[in-house]
Fold this protein.
Amino acid sequence: MGALVNESAPSRIAPRPWPRRLLNRLEIDQAVFFAIAARGWQFLAGPLTVILIGKFFSAEVQGYYYTFWSLIALQTVFDFSFHPVIVNFASHEWGAGGQAMARHARAGAALGGDSASQSHQIATERLASLLRGSLLGYAIVAVIFLLVVGGAGLAFFALGQASDTLAWRAPWLALVALTALTFWTTPWLAMLEGCDEVKSVYHLQFTRAVVGNLVVWALIPLGAALWVPAAAAAVRLGCEAIWIVAKHRVFFSTLLRQPRGARVNWWGEVWPFQWRVGLRGLLGFANTFLINPVVFLYHGEVAAGQLGMTWQILTSLQAACMSWLKTKTAKLGMLVSSGQFAELDRIYFRLLWISGTFLALGCAAFVLLVFGLNHFDWSLAGRMLPTLPTAVLAVAIVLLIIPESQWTYIHAHKKSPHLGLAVLGAVLSAVLIVKLGHDWGASGVIVAYFTMIVAFYLPLWSAVWWSCRARWHAEPERLLVDRETP
């Protein structure tokens, strides 16, 4: 057929096959694919894990198992939302240096001594400064986490009338120690993500999820019981360490050198943004991770296990659907850095629509599944919440994706305004969760969670997003020049 081609005719690009066109319309590149694959694997693997837990764990062990994970989520507090801060700062430096290089390459200018190479050198040194400072900070935080959370967990379980027959202390301390060690891998991965190695980072997450589940499935029937979370933490640490050394040691060898020129001004640039983002994340902890421990404390491990299983499935769905936006965090930062606000909005709105649609469909399917389990009186239904509270929680999870995505958009500008509203929301949320959780158990905390999203976070954060977007994009020069304003 090649001999029949008319060489004088303009060449035509062969149409892409329909699966590729569909993926393009759904904004699924390799990074999104691995992110969704990781979450999809966890969602598909979740039922098997649930079945194994229901079969081999007693109700008491199940309660401790999910509460272990709830307390370990305190790492969010100690991380202080530093990971997204590193990603956003790295993306701005990477975008600025890379774009200068690209402009001079297109113009055919030499790289030696010109502004392109200078811009690249400045960006490289600032990235090196960012990495070295982050590693030091995370090392300090890891030690504090080990001491504080390890001791606090021992006190919490004792306060909640801990079992005299179940060996939970050693597994708990092992889990805390391994989690503390994973703190030090965070800045390496955040730098990779901010420097446009998003595909590699989410490929790691997929690999880590598969290996982790295989280990968990092997250990549960063997009677590992509460050692299972510690084993999962060990798998995560091993995968991340191997990935950093084996795949990216050349990249990091440059950034680990002592920067000689430009440096990141931690107190003038990073900290004003960091403490606002971190405090906002810390306050958000009261609206989410406080839920399961409150039920455990006031209504026992069985009720906490039911809520924990339902919560884990729905939040896993939410995390999977947020992958469209999370994988574009660095891209959004680069677009802000270069002032391409029209493209920023196009990508943001399209990804929000896609992720929101898939989340709504997934949550609806899960509610129907819970209804079916209860209707046919399957034993597994007793390990999850009834249909009505599950449905209310599902609606809240779907609505929450809107304010969550709005803050991803805002933080791409290296800004985090209106902290006072976040403080007010956290206080109201904590009061409602503790009060309604004490009185009504799992149903009470779900009502508190739903109320805060519908009556507070959704309307107020939408107003903040709209106001900031209109103001910042109307003054693009000021936004691009004023790098140090939080």
Remarks:
- Residues 1-11, 98-116, 480-486 have pLDDT under 50 and may be disordered.
- The chain has two domains: 58-264, 276-486.
- The CA atoms of residues 161 and 297 lie 9 Å apart.
